[in-house]
Backbone:
């Protein structure tokens, strides 16, 4: 995996998910019990409920190209392996070298050895314009150092009719969750504190019209209308 050019903010995020912190997070999020515990303790949400809300908006991907960003250690793809089998291609992008190595080890064990894994910033995807039919951005937007730039780049690679479905952590759920968000920013795991309004406004400004948002504690699930050219 070649080393991409990263901004200082992107490099900080990448470092935060390399090493022991990333390994612990990956181990938890790849386990149903661990993920449920993590979401309940940190965000006052049920991981099962968040996953179910996302899955309601994914649709049929047979013959389509799916982009997962950030792919992390591949846990979200792993849990949807059966749904992905009919896809034409699946691409996973992340800043963290260690997370991508974990995904490369994990995904073939679940029939996803053909997933193309790329280390790149979401603001500079090495993908053709209009090449992606479905963008998964699960547990995502709060990690994007340049949210408008990231969404503009996702809009560039989105094919006509493509949709963006995902989730992110937002403020306002509780004082405890907001404090955790600040700590995640301080330690480099999050890029910024977002709220529901700023998320929906940023999506719309980039050309991704939100048709559904759903709060689960501090976690916000979102789905957009098919994009048009």
Residues:
């Amino acid at each position: 995996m070649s080393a991409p050019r990263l901004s200082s903010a992107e490099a900080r995020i990448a470092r935060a998910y390399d090493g022991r912190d990333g390994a612990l997070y990956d181990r938890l999020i790849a386990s149903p019990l661990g993920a449920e515990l993590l979401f309940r303790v940190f965000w006052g949400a049920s991981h099962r409920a968040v996953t179910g809300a996302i899955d309601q908006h994914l649709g049929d991907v047979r013959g389509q190209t799916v982009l997962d960003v950030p792919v992390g250690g591949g846990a979200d793809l792993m849990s949807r392996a059966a749904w992905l089998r009919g896809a034409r291609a699946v691409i996973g992008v992340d800043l963290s070298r260690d997370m991508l190595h974990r995904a490369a080890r994990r995904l073939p064990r679940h029939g996803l050895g053909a997933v193309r894994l790329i280390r790149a910033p979401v603001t500079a995807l090495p993908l053709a314009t209009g090449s992606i039919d479905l963008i998964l951005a699960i547990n995502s937007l709060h990690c994007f150092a340049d949210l408008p730039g990231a969404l503009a780049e996702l809009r560039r690679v989105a094919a006509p009719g493509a949709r963006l479905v995902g989730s992110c952590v937002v403020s306002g759920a509780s004082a405890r969750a907001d404090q955790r968000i600040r700590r995640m920013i301080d330690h480099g795991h999050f890029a910024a504190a977002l709220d529901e309004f700023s998320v929906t406004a940023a999506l719309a400004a980039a050309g991704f019209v939100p048709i559904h948002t759903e709060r689960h504690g501090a976690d916000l699930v979102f789905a957009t209308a098919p994009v048009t050219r």
